[in-house]
Amino acid sequence: MDTPVKTPVLEGWFTLDEREPHLLGARCAACGTYYFPKAIKFCRHPDCAGESFEEVKLSRTGRIWSYTNAAYKPPEPYISNDPFVPYGIAAVELEQERMIVLGQVASGVGVEALKVGMRVELILEPLDDGKLSWKWKPLPENKP
Predict the structure, then answer these.
(1) Contact present, 121 and 139 (Cβ < 8 Å)
(2) Inter-residue contact 69 to 86 (CB < 8 Å)
(3) Which of 17, 85, 124, 135 has the maximum number of C-beta atoms within 10 A of its C-beta?
(4) What whole-number distance in Å separates Cα of residue 46 and Cα of residue 43?
(5) Is residue 54 part of a domain?
(6) pLDDT of residue 89 exceeding 60
(7) Domain assignment of residue 98, yes or no
(8) Is the full-model pTM beyond 0.85?
């Protein structure tokens, strides 16, 4: 039986390891500042003139810094099912890097279940067009 090919929504932005996915970022070799996405030419830290970066796997966990819902169908080129189903979006502060990364919330998790400070983990799920993307899923420890 052939295994279906997993196609990422954005090539090179995250690993395709469904058990332990990671976003792929960059770290400045001079000052250690982290970036996501990783495509950069110079360090944006005001006290650094670094131009050398290493690819790094970013933290898989973090805390919700802010969140909202996408209650309207986004314009093209976004592809969504018809009828459109609203989804949550979370801004997550990564555990180690202390940087904020946006992403959709896992399927089946509504904004009413989210709280600022809630711990989440990175997962991979298909979008409406079948391509894989990263999403944020609340960790079980958040349940009352």
Answers:
(1) yes
(2) yes
(3) 135
(4) 8
(5) no
(6) yes
(7) yes
(8) yes
pLDDT digits (tens, 9 = 90+) for 31-82: 999 999 987 889 999 999 999 999 999 999 999 999 999 988 878 777 777 7
Helix/strand/coil (H/E/C) assignment for every residue in the chain: CCCCCCCECCCCCECCCCCCCCEEEEEECCCCCEECCCCCCCCCCCCCCCCCEEEEECCCEEEEEEEEEECCCCCCCCCCCCCCCCEEEEEEEECCCCCEEEEEECCCCCHHHCCCCCEEEEEEEECCCCCEEEEEEECHHHCC
Assigned domain for 132 exists: yes
For residue 88, what are the domain limits? 59-144
Q: What is the pLDDT of residue 68?
A: 96
